[in-house]
């Protein structure tokens, strides 16, 4: 996917690090489910227990202050650290522009707020608790920040078989989708539904993840002129690779899923990409 170079003056990016490890108490991203895979096949943990723990931690939200390493680093310096960092910043710039325009078209321009992207190494502190590279990319609603340790992209390609720039763009676009859910109030409605109907908490969580996948597709669909041959296939491979059923090898029952099956994730991404209409994504959660 050919994205325009980012303008350092128009994106919110910082370098992070130096925080403690552990599981963040905020919105766990599409990379977070990798912990389940590691727990099952490396540490021998029960996958159902792991998924349950992930779900509980997603709603915890300890309040801590950000403690970024090298806070005086310029946006250009942070985004120039590596190819992955530059890609992430280019994607963030495109996502900001696309979603701001979409909000304006819908008469909601005053509600749009750009998120911050923190590129960190190892661990970091967030408004949702301690973040760790082992969790993969995640979004924290407490500080409206997307957190990425770009080493995750190597894991995505080498361990999960999902390589290519579009696969990496899909990851950040998914986390950006959680930001959209936060500023529109959808995530708050989902959390309320989970609290009032705890037996179906995982089902609500899956719907929110699938909507974020769909939002990622909408961004790509609205930037179709930048899509290159093979991008669609890369996106479908990534979505399939991080489905709950794929990551747990069928050892976890569907009622314990938190992100959706491979098929569901592919369908959600495809819906957004082919329609380019976020209103179709809203039909997934049906809470508006």
Automatic annotation (TrEMBL):
Name the GO cellular-component terms.
membrane
Q: Which domain of life is it from?
A: Bacteria
Q: How does it sit in the membrane?
A: Single-pass membrane protein
Q: Which Pfam families match?
A: Zn_peptidase
- Subcellular location as annotated: Membrane
Q: Tell me yes or no: is Signal among this UniProt entry's keywords.
A: no
List residues traversing the bilayer.
none
Q: Primary place of residence? A: membrane
User: An example of a Gene Ontology BP annotation on this entry?
Assistant: proteolysis
Q: Name one GO molecular function term.
A: metallopeptidase activity
Show the InterPro entries listed in the entry. Answer: Uncharacterised_pept_Zn_put
Question: Keywords on this record?
Answer: Hydrolase, Membrane, Metalloprotease, Protease, Transmembrane, Transmembrane helix
The protein in question is named: Zinc metalloprotease
Which organism encodes this protein? Aurantiacibacter xanthus
